[in-house]
Amino acid sequence: MAYKPKAGATMSTPNVVPMTDVMLVLLIIMMVITPMLQKGVTVDMARVSNPRKMPSANKTNAILISITRDGGIYFRTTKIPENEVTSRVRDAIKDRLNKEVFIKSDARAKYGSVVTVVDDVRAAGVEKLGLLTEKLTKPQPGPPTLGGG
């Protein structure tokens, strides 16, 4: 007689432990990579009550110019001198149908710096110029205090 092993009982529920392990690894990878995917330079943008949505600014090929608090100008992620803004923008939009540029400025940047960059961008032949802002969040009313004064 030949030996024939018997199969164990069949499980009616799937084993989710390997799937959970894979999902945790993917979550960790996304948490590490997401900050690296940020477009442009981080600035503390001005907050407004009635912003306009500009979905084109989130596209991967959007032309973004950032102005930092100290007056530094960044074309996408590269710091450039102020006299190169017009030529960089002109080169970036020359083959595009949509000649749109977005400016992201720090709320505490000098007004003169922002106006100079806007003027340089317009000199490059830009048809649409977007100034990026953040939506002002209204503080939630807290619980009333007793015996205030």
Topology:
Blueprint: H1 17-33, E1 47-48, E2 63-67, E3 73-75, E4 78-80, H2 85-93, E5 100-105, H3 111-123, E6 128-132, E7 134-135
Parallel strand pairs: 1-7, 2-5, 5-6
Antiparallel strand pairs: 2-3, 3-4
Helix pairs in contact: 2-3
Describe the structure.
The protein has 3 helices and 7 strands. The protein has 149 residues and is α/β, with parallel strands linked by helices. It has a domain at 54-135: Nucleotidyltransferase, domain 5 (2-Layer Sandwich). The strands form 2 sheets. Strands 4-3-2-5-6 form a 5-stranded mixed β-sheet, covered by helices on one side. A two-stranded parallel ribbon has the order 1-7.
Any idea what the shape is? Answer: elongated
Uncertain spans, ≥5 residues at pLDDT below 50?
none
> What percent of residues are in strands?
15-25%
Taking all residues together, what is the mean pLDDT?
85
Structural class: alpha/beta
Largest β sheet strand count, sense and barrel closure = 5 strands, mixed
Reading off the top of the CATH hierarchy, the class of the domain at 54-135 is best stated as Alpha Beta
Helix content: 25-40%
- CA-atom Rg in angstroms: 26 Å
